[in-house]
């Protein structure tokens, strides 16, 4: 696995692929296209090996960015082969290209989390690895907080030393645990399997390139579909107009008719007709589509709709999101072992602590799951120390605080900011992380990896499902949605179903004014990851219920026995 002049390897394979494609154009022999695609596959395998050699995330991200341009060429070759032959094998190859060209770093982190979950109790080196990552987060975070400090060079030296220790330990663990070595690269492992779907579910994966939007549709017991749509000025303009309606809380109110027309046109453009009858829509977005609230698209503009009764996609389908199918599979495999149920974090900032605006007082009594094993970190207790101590012990984390998605994404606690390095090092055991704060689904888009958002950071830390926001959500409407949401969660509904039902209940509530019915007020929260039912851990509360039940049975049995003897 030694690498020398890796750029030469990539450049040679890319040049050979281009030469093979040129020979196809000259001769018409599709074997040259097959040769070109084989060169792209070899380049991908080389990149995968090199990614494990790099220690810095920035180096890995740059590798992903460079690889993305080559993968776009590979997609074009696969499309030519599909058009020339009509064979499904080339559609499958194209889907594999779309999958492997996004969220590779996140996938590696989740694979690591899975092995850690299974083996941390039996091999102390995994605990040592977690401790090293916590130390690394400290030295990575300090330059972000104090970029002008004279200690920055020393912090970076310390961080480099810890990275070396982590790399050495990971290499040792990979030799002993082959499952840590990464995802297998053959096409079959990328493809959807029947177990990936429920009946009535449609999976839609997008691949955005400079000139094309490739759309793949998979459904249980149905043919696979591949659409190629020009990524031209019309499509780009339509997406920009749609997103502009969510830049503030009055854009839709000022032009509801314009919004409906735009949302309907975009629905027709980006969602294939084969998905229309699906009850569940799993969206694997790419590029600018990461920022689109699909639920707020409109499926018809007949009958003069208004903001309350419009034919939003929400009414017809439960919409879920995932970073990639491979990532979704890994999230499905996560089996949290936390013994407690819900941890809520609400600093409040009543006195403008750290210059932050006060938030409405958090009363978590409305969560609808009273009596379960909950802990509320409020006001002064909602600090970094208390959070880090408790975070790995709970199945559900609920944040009610400020968050920012600028150049330094962060969640605000009472005493400090929770930054990406903090989150990456968290050993979470969470079925669900609720990020009802603003812009938690936004971040810088890294081409070839995806949006580096707070939501993604929680997924990397081991959260199976995240509810995050696509813009600055309204406090009042979000509070109402949360009441509905946790009521459904308490009834045993999955996160995706609970959020959809919460939004429908919100729209049908006559107490919600006409202005607040705008999609801006309810469509910002989205479900990303494994849409699972959150089982109540068997903590003391459940043992108490079980004990009470057994006592009742014993009393009933004693009375029955006594009555038999009396007879």
SSE topology sketch:
Blueprint: H1 6-27, H2 31-53, H3 57-85, H4 88-100, H5 104-119, H6 124-145, H7 152-176, E1 201-208, E2 212-219, E3 225-230, H8 233-244, H9 251-254, H10 256-270, E4 280-284, E5 318-321, H11 325-333, E6 340-346, E7 374-378, H12 384-390, E8 394-399, E9 403-404, E10 410-412, E11 417-419, H13 420-424, E12 432-435, E13 443-446, E14 450-453, H14 454-460, E15 465-469, H15 475-490, H16 495-508, H17 519-522, E16 525-529, H18 540-566
Parallel strand pairs: 1-4, 4-5, 6-7, 6-8, 8-12, 12-15
Antiparallel strand pairs: 1-2, 2-3, 9-10, 10-11, 13-14, 15-16
Helix pairs in contact: 1-2, 2-3, 3-4, 5-11, 6-7, 8-10, 15-16
What does this structure look like?
By secondary structure, the protein is α/β, with parallel strands linked by helices. It folds into three domains: 6-105; 192-321, no CATH class; 335-536, Rossmann fold (3-Layer(aba) Sandwich). It has 18 helices and 16 strands. The strands form four sheets. It has a six-stranded mixed β-sheet, with helices on both faces. Strands 3-2-1-4-5 form a five-stranded mixed β-sheet. A three-stranded antiparallel β-sheet has the order 9-10-11. Helix 1 (6-27) runs antiparallel to helix 2 (31-53) and helix 15 crosses helix 16. Residues 539-567 have low confidence and may be disordered.
């Amino acid at each position: 696995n030694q690498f020398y002049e890796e750029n030469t390897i990539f450049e040679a394979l890319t040049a050979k692929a281009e030469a093979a494609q040129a020979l196809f154009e000259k001769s018409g022999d599709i074997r040259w296209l097959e040769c070109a695609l084989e060169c792209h596959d070899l380049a991908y395998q080389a990149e995968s090996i090199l990614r494990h050699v790099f220690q810095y995330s920035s180096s890995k991200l740059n590798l992903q960015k460079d690889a993305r341009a080559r993968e776009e060429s590979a997609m074009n070759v696969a499309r030519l082969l599909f058009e020339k032959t009509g064979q499904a094998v080339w559609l499958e190859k194209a889907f594999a290209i779309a999958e492997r060209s996004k969220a590779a770093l996140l996938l590696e982190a989740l694979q690591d989390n899975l092995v850690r979950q299974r083996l941390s109790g039996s091999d102390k080196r995994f605990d040592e690895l977690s401790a090293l990552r916590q130390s690394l987060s400290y030295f990575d975070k300090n330059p972000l907080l104090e970029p002008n400090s004279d200690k920055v060079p020393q912090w970076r030296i310390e961080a480099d030393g810890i990275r070396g220790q982590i790399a050495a330990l990971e290499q040792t663990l990979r030799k002993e645990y082959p499952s840590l070595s990464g995802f297998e690269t053959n096409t079959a492992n990328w493809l959807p399997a029947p177990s990936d779907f429920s009946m009535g579910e449609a999976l839609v994966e997008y691949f955005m390139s400079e000139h094309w939007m490739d759309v793949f549709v998979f459904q249980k017991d149905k043919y696979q579909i591949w659409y190629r749509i020009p990524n031209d000025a019309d499509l780009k303009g339509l997406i920009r107009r749609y997103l502009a309606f969510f830049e503030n809380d009055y854009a839709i109110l000022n032009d509801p008719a314009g919004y409906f027309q735009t949302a309907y046109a975009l629905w027709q453009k980006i969602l294939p007709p084969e998905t229309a009858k699906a009850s569940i829509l799993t969206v694997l977005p790419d590029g600018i589509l990461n920022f689109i609230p699909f639920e707020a698209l409109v499926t018809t503009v007949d009958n003069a709709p208004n903001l309350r009764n419009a034919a939003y996609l929400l009414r017809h389908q439960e919409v879920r999101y995932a970073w990639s199918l491979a990532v979704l599979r890994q999230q499905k495999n996560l089996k949290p072992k936390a013994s407690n149920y819900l941890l809520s974090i609400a600093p409040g900032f009543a006195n403008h602590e750290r210059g932050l605006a006060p938030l409405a007082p958090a009363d978590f009594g409305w969560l609808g799951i009273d009596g379960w094993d909950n802990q509320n970190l409020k006001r002064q207790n909602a600090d970094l120390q208390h959070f880090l101590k408790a975070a790995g012990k709970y199945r559900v984390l609920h944040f009610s605080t400020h968050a920012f998605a600028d150049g330094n994404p962060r969640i605000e606690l009472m005493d400090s900011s929770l930054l990406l390095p903090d989150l990456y090092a968290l050993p979470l055991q969470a079925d669900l992380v609720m990020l009802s704060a603003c812009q938690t689904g936004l971040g810088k888009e890294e081409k070839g990896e995806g949006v580096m958002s707070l939501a993604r950071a929680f997924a990397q830390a081991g959260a199976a499902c995240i509810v995050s926001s696509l813009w600055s959500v309204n406090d009042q409407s979000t509070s109402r949605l949360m009441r509905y949401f946790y009521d459904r969660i308490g009834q045993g509904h999955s996160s995706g179903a609970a959020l959809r039902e919460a939004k429908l209940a919100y729209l049908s509530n006559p107490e919600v004014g006409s202005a607040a019915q705008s999609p801006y007020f309810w469509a910002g929260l989205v479900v990303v990851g494994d849409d699972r039912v959150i089982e109540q851990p068997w903590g003391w509360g459940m043992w108490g219920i079980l004990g009470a039940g057994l006592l009742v049975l014993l009393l009933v049995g004693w009375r029955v026995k006594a009555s038999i003897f009396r007879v």
